[in-house]
Each structure stands twice: as structure tokens, then as C-alpha cells.
Amino acid sequence: MSNAMTEAKIFPCTQSRDLAEKIAAAYGTKLGNVITSTYSDGEFQPSFEESIRGSRIFIIGSTNPGANNLMEMLLMLDAAKRASARHITAVMPYFGWARQDRKDKPRVPIAAKMVASILETAGATRIITMDLHADQIQGFFEKPVDHLFASTIFLPYVRSLKLDNLTIASPDMGGSKRAYAYSKALESDVVICYKQRAKANKISHMELIGNVEGKNVVLVDDMVDTAGTLTKAADVMMERGALSVRAICTHPVLSGEAYERIENSQLQELIVTDSIPLRKESRKIRVVSCADLFADVMKRVHDNKSISSKFIM
């Protein structure tokens, strides 16, 4: 029986349930029945409450820390494998632990590679994710990886703002490739921030490469964690004569004092996806859903159709 004639089943991990419901609705189906039992010490056990034998299933869950989010995905993959699912796709809108993608000093792990290995060992036969922190993480997997770009969501939004003298900016040297791709699509100028860190999440100094005077600036990045870089960049740009500064960040990690920094910053707006649920609302944070993007790709994967259009900036 062909995939097109066999209904795919979609199951949520706990923290991504709201997004999973949106994806299922956009896909044109309902979420499958899965329950999670929890012991008094915090150990938990997911259970598929319907037959998945021979099925293609999609398990939706971002794996941002704490470790329970990753552990739940692994347990669900293992349960699906042992329940004889035919195709098991881990749909991870945010692939956590991705910042540890190389050895930047001696005696440290390459966590992104380790996570890739255990996902495959647990039972994943395909990975669908969005805006990896480093493109080379795709090579850490032996199974197919569909790496989607949130630019397919963000570019229409930026165009709708109809900003004069638009300039795209990268908050650091590592994001310059992404910034150039956005600037090419929007036919705009580009500037780069050069930052020096005293230690992780602490910026000691920032310089600007390029001119922002009289410009409406849009910063682009794959994630916003403590928001220290973004808010510092916004302050520097306003000091250098920018008319306005907005930021586009795919994954709203938003830890520590991030919300307070954003509220008190010169950022006019922070646009994010719902790859990670917000801890609280903010007047400066606008959420653009990635549900339609994932639903479309999942349907194309199930029907064995091309998804190359979703890889184009």
C-alpha cells in the first residue's frame, strides 16, 4: 500500500503540544492518542494508546533544555520503534544542544553529534527541523534530515512592514551568511556586528561593521537566549543614528533576564516563531507560527513529493 493511501499519524511531546495541535490542524488531521504517566520521583513513561504498526508517524517536540524535553522525544521514538511503526520522523522545530557543535577547547563534548546519534539509536528514521544553529549538524546524522528555513515565514512579514532604507544586520560574525541571504532576498544593505565575549552569555565589547545612519534595521539570528547580544546591538545601532531596530529570531529560548532586557531595550519589536512556547507574553514580542510550514513539509514527505522549495532563503 502506498504512503498516499496510508494515513500518517501525528503525536505531540508534552511541551510542544500547542504547536503540534496547530500543525495537525494545518495538516488536516487530529493528534494521535498518547499519554504520559509520571512517577513520584519525576520519572515518566509515554504510551501510544492506539496501534501504529506499519504506520508513518510524526513525533513533534522541540528539545530545548532541560533534559526532559530531549528524554521525552527519545522515549517516544523508542516506544514507536518497539510498536513496529514503519517510518518514524522526529519533528524538532528547535534542535536543542546545537551550540555544542564542535570542540572549541580541549576536553569538552560535541553534544550536537551525541544527540544526533542517540536520536537515531532510539528509532528516528528521519529528522525534520528548522534553522539549525550550524548547518553542518545535518552531517552528524546518518538518516535523512530536512532542514527548513524560517525565512519562508519571516520574509513576507518583513516585506509587509514596507520599511524605507531597510538594512539587514547580523548580531555576530557567525550569522553573516544568514544576514547576506536575507539582504539578497530583500535587496537591502547589510551590516555586521563584531562582538567579544568575556565568557558565555557575557559581551565585553561590540563594534559595528557598516553604516546604519538613517536606516531602519532588522537584525536576524537563529535564536535569542539571554537577549544580551540583540539588545546591545540595538543600543549601538541607535547610537549610530539608526531610525529603528527590529529583530527576527527563529527560536525564542529567552532565558535568564531576557524578557526584562527586551522590555528595557531600544528594540522596537522582536519577531519569533512558536518553535518554543513563550514563558510569558511581552508587548514587544510578536509570534509568527511555523505550523503551516511544518504541516506542508510533513505532507510532502508522506506523499514522497519534493520539499526543495522550503530550503530556499
Can you describe this structure in just a few lines?
By secondary structure, this protein is of the alpha/beta class.
Describe the structure.
There is one protein chain. This protein has 313 residues and is of the alpha/beta class. It folds into two domains: 3-149 and 291-311, 3-Layer(aba) Sandwich (Rossmann fold); 151-288, Rossmann fold (3-Layer(aba) Sandwich). Helices cover 29% and strands 27% of the residues. It contains eight helices and 14 strands. The protein has helices at residues 17-27, 67-82, 111-122, 151-161, 176-186, 228-239, 258-264, 291-302, and strands at residues 9-12, 34-38, 44-48, 56-60, 87-92, 126-130, 145-148, 166-170, 189-199, 202-209, 216-224, 244-252, 269-273, 285-288. The strands form three sheets. A seven-stranded mixed sheet has the order 10-9-8-11-12-13-14, sandwiched between helices. A five-stranded parallel sheet has the order 1-4-5-6-7, with helices on both faces. Helix 2 links the parallel strand 4 (56-60) and strand 5 (87-92). The radius of gyration is 20 Å and the shape is globular.
- State the end-to-end distance: 35 Å
Report the count of strand segments: 14
Q: What is the radius of gyration?
A: 20 Å
CATH topology of the largest domain: Rossmann fold
Strand content: 25-35%
Structural class: alpha/beta
Features:
Rossmann fold; 14 strands; 2 domains; 8 helices; 29% helix; ATP-binding; single chain; 313 residues; nucleotide-binding; seven-stranded mixed sheet
Write the layout of secondary structure elements.
Layout: E1 9-12, H1 17-27, E2 34-38, E3 44-48, E4 56-60, H2 67-82, E5 87-92, H3 111-122, E6 126-130, E7 145-148, H4 151-161, E8 166-170, H5 176-186, E9 189-199, E10 202-209, E11 216-224, H6 228-239, E12 244-252, H7 258-264, E13 269-273, E14 285-288, H8 291-302
Parallel strand pairs: 1-4, 4-5, 5-6, 6-7, 8-9, 8-11, 11-12, 12-13, 13-14
Antiparallel strand pairs: 2-3, 9-10
Helix pairs in contact: 1-8, 2-3
